[in-house]
Design brief:
2 copies of one chain form a homodimer. Chain A contains 5 helices and 14 strands. Chain A is an alpha/beta fold. In chain A, the strands form 3 sheets. In chain A, strands 1-2-3-4-5-6 form a 6-stranded mixed β-sheet, with helices on one face. In chain A, strands 7-8-9-10-13-14 form a 6-stranded mixed β-sheet. In chain A, strands 11-12 form a two-stranded antiparallel sheet. In chain A, strand 8 and strand 9 form a beta hairpin. In chain A, helix 1 packs across helix 2. The complex binds fe (ii) ion (2 copies). The site of one fe (ii) ion has 5 residues of chain B, from loops. One fe (ii) ion binds next to loops of chain A. Chains A, B: Homodimer. Monomer. Interacts with TST. May interact with RELA. Chains A, B: It is found in: Mitochondrion. Chains A, B: This is Persulfide dioxygenase ETHE1, mitochondrial.
Chain lengths: 224, 224
């Protein structure tokens, strides 16, 4: 869509229907630089097409953490956008083109995301905060009415929270809702730890394959 | 969340993962009146819970058309919100508490939706336009890069379009994109008609059950 001008930053939320992972495309409408948050390998072609539709150049492929339920799409996106740099937190212990720490900014054109360490679900979990649009991308650190360890105590109540998963088809939440309605955020620390230790959830189906792959941009080990 | 004030209109997009139907909740933050667009019977409990979480009173349950792929949730939502009125277009031939025509407004508190006739997919298809937030809810009249009969020629290019379905997990589009990238909107009328007559798509699985039920708020015929 070269020549057709958007007047505001570009933003799209996307769903991958097998792992129910939510992916986000954010673009600077002036410089056409863009980032993608939590891309999935299975939907890489869709994401590449959308970026091209928007005439965007992908500069960063960010993951909120080393996912256990799907393989990241960063290695596939890099083939279409060779200058794309993958991003993971240093605390994750994974490999990426750029390792980030709490407080760092990730710039795309005139827009930027602030990195906030939000460990709990994994040691390397980060939340990316887009101050300009008052949106936060929490990955699995905070889900709708679930999970829970979060650093939003100082957050603005109206800020929209874009989560990494939701199995009921709820696509967004807000600080206001989670502070009041999230059963895991209204417990004492002791009760919270007890709850989290007794969830007894089954391991994600793709755990054994996904975690090692996601430690290095989604490249699957070649067994031959 | 009584007593907790939102400072802007409330808006949420939701997904029903079996029919990939997209449902929308829109609320007036001042009067707490709300509407729901294209609710699904299977997710009625989720929607009722969300409306209660937001301390919203549902005044209208709107359908963009008589759906063939799922049963509307209006009859279930009315049990939780007895003053809710269902809305369908008069041109649909269906029954509803309120039948609307092109150009009419549907008011919820200080907010309103304008009804626009967008026939094609069905004779009774309408698009609801939320001018205040520059958003349009097209149901199946316009899908992302697909389907096509639409009345948006006068639309603002940046306006966001919220569609009724997308099987690739793309949740929104814009007038700008569809005018330029939708293969069905860049054809001549003759070619468009030829394409649409030769799609040879299978009937939706729930067609025989859904259409008669959706002609009257989703009440399924009792065969006894
Ligand atoms: Fe995770
Ligand atoms: Fe339809």
């Amino acid at each position: 869509m070269r020549g057709l001008a958007f007047s505001t930053p570009i933003f799209r939320q996307l769903v991958e229907f097998q792992s129910y992972t939510y992916t986000y495309i954010l673009g600077c409408e002036k410089t056409r630089q863009a980032v993608i948050i939590d891309p999935v390998d299975k939907t890489a072609d869709r994401d590449i097409q959308l970026l091209k539709d928007f005439d965007l150049n992908l500069v960063y492929g960010l993951n909120t953490h080393v996912h256990a339920d799907h393989i990241t799409g960063t290695h596939l996106l890099r083939k279409a956008f060779p200058s794309m740099k993958s991003v993971l937190s240093r605390a994750s212990g994974g490999k990426a083109d750029r390792l980030v720490d709490d407080g760092e900014d990730v710039q795309f054109g005139e827009q930027k995301l602030e990195v906030r360490a939000t460990p709990g679900h994994t040691n390397g979990c980060v939340t990316y905060v887009w101050h300009e649009l008052r949106r936060a991308f929490t990955g699995d650190s905070l889900l709708v009415r679930a999970c829970g360890r979060t650093d939003f105590q100082e957050g603005n109540a109206a800020a929209l929270i874009f989560i990494g998963h939701n199995y009921n088809g709820i696509l967004q939440t807000s600080v206001l809702e989670e502070k009041n309605l999230n059963p895991r955020l209204t417990k004492t620390e002791e009760k919270f730890l007890e709850t989290m230790e007794n969830l007894h959830l089954a391991h994600p189906k793709q755990l054994d394959e996904a975690v090692p792959a996601n430690m290095k941009d989604g490249e699957v080990e070649n067994s031959s």
